[in-house]
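Quick one: co-fold with coenzyme A.
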Amino acid sequence: MAIWQDFKDKLGLGEKPALFLRPLKERDLQHVLRIEREMYDYPWSEDIFRDCLRVAYSNWALIKDEQFIGYAILSIAVGEAHILNICLDKQYTGQGLGRHFLAELLDMAKGKEAARIFLEVRQSNTVAINLYQTMGFKKIGQRKKYYQAADGREDAMVLSLEIADAER
Ligand SMILES: CC(C)(COP(=O)(O)OP(=O)(O)OC[C@H]1O[C@@H](n2cnc3c(N)ncnc32)[C@H](O)[C@@H]1OP(=O)(O)O)[C@@H](O)C(=O)NCCC(=O)NCCS
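Sure, here it is.
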């Protein structure tokens, strides 16, 4: 059984749609920008999010008890998926919801015939790295000075996960 399926089962999610993903819409941008600016030192601009919606990336909202609590942006093409952004509202972090969100995204990417999923993460982002590694992601590279940082530039770790053979 896939690692992420284990975590979904442990969370006991399933029957009620109190927590679900739906496609991200332009009308969500106010929530996206508020969360993005709170959670990142170097947030994406509104124009970047508008471009993501325009080019029809795989854009998702996470809804809990009818509240918008997070979003994710993926590109999926020719059997590969790339997580470009995944972010939760601060007040909902640390409760297993990021793990659930990621698990759903992996299922969705697999459903769209992605065999492998990639992402970049700041090497100082311990929370995200812990999450990815415990979901089975492996480090496959390092991009030098990839991100802006207060004291110059910061490296990105490139992680990937094979999803083709995992059960959904
Ligand atoms: C990264 C993020 C999506 C994780 O979501 P989350 O809901 O906070 O994470 P979860 O509660 O599901 O925890 C998942 C795992 O992350 C790690 N983690 C969570 N909080 C942590 C903390 N304070 N310190 C260290 N590791 C932590 C743990 O490995 C945890 O698993 P465990 O609870 O089984 O130990 C969320 O924190 C976030 O939106 N951060 C800001 C945006 C960001 O950095 N996105 C990633 C860009 S690559």
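If it helps, Helices lie at 3-11, 29-39, 46-54, 97-111, 126-134.
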